[in-house]
Design a protein that fits this description.
mainly alpha, about 55% helix, rod-shaped
Amino acid sequence: MTQELSSLMDGELEADEARRAIRGCCGSEALKDTWQAYHLIGDAMRGESPCRGAATRRIMEALEREPTVLAPRLRLGASAGRIAFAAAASVATVAVVGWIGMQDRAPADGPALARSDAPAAQPVAVANVVPLRNMNDYVVYHRQMPNAEFYRPASHQAVGGR
C-alpha cells in the first residue's frame, strides 16, 4: 500500500486507483503517518517550509511581542574632530620647525665669499729657553720632595700599633 501512496503523491495513479488508495489511507493510522511523512519529504525537497509546530508558533509570537531594541548612535563627530585637530597640530608643528630651520640657512644679500675682518696671522714670540747648566741641582731638589709612599691613605697605616 505504501507503493500506491508514493505513486499517488507523484500523480501516477488513475482516478479509480487514486480513490482506492485514499480510502485505504483513511482507514489506517500507519498509512496516515506515511502520507504525512511523504508530504514533509516533498516540502523539504521543494524548499518549502513545513507546517510549523506549536512550539515554533509560540516562539514566533513571543518574538513579535518583544519590543525592538535600537543600538545607540555611534558618535563619529567627536572622534573625527579629535583626529582632525591632531592632524592640524602635527602639520603646524612641522611647519614651525621647518620655518625655524630654514631661517638659519637663508642666503646673504651678496655672494658668499670667505672674508674676515680679523687681521692676518701674527708671528708668535718665541720664549727664550735657558738650559739648566747643572741638572744635578734639579734632581737633588726633587728628591727632597716626599714621594708617593708618603701620601698613602690613612686606612692603610696602623694607628697606635693596631
